[in-house]
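Below sits the subject:
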Amino acid sequence: MFKGRNLIVATKHEKELVIAPILEKELAVSCIVSPNFDTDQLGTFTGEVERKDDPITTARKKCLLAMELTNCDMAIASEGSFGPHPTIYFVPADDEFLLFLDKKNDLEIIVREISTETNFRAGEINSEKELTDFADSAKFPSHALILRKHKEDFTTITKGISDWDILHTTYNDLSKTDGRAYIETDMRAMYNPTRMKVIETATYKLANKIKTACPKCKTPGFSVKDAKEGLPCEVCSFPTRSILSYMHTCVKCSFSEVEMYPHGKVLEEPLYCDVCNP
């Protein structure tokens, strides 16, 4: 279905460096990029261009725009968001969506990877020491930083700073009036190796999903659509919050199949039981 076809990687931030090798090996496609494609038109992390849509819609738009620009019928795009983890609220997380679009076969396949492996942070600084402390905690200089006068100031932004001299010079220029500046991690993939690693993990997940065919119609992308809790406790038999089964569903014909005990356990330890360990 995919062998020998071109796949446009809809990015301007060098995500093809991790996406292309995986998909070229796993799907036998030829990945291409367009130097004229500007994903910033759909939103920037620093806010000069507001992202108006949710991550999946934005990734889909990236694919469609890149396909139109290059006259290619197959595309992939990623869209990342950064903030508190959706369940571990006090921990920052990288929430990556990866969307694969194949117009020829009318396919759209999506994966999501949420990782606590991120250096994401931002804040106001008031001294050279605070600047250095922030940089050290953000894995600088292997991970770039962004400086501006204030959080809402879009006129003084310097992005992609990865040199100590430039970092200090930029801070001194911004802070010479009142000692303050606003610093943040540069979350663009090419300036953030930790994020690039999460995109790589998501790409492997996507490749595996694409290669899993529906038992009924053989369409790629047969995967988990829903999970059911209720694995019984091995002591009291009360249903726990642990996963009892997965529901796999086809993206094309909607055929579904239940997988019982997906983690290889038929009973759960009482440690995870709300009755035995309230």
Q: What stands out?
A: The domain at 122-186 is CATH 3.30.1490 (Dna Ligase; domain 1).
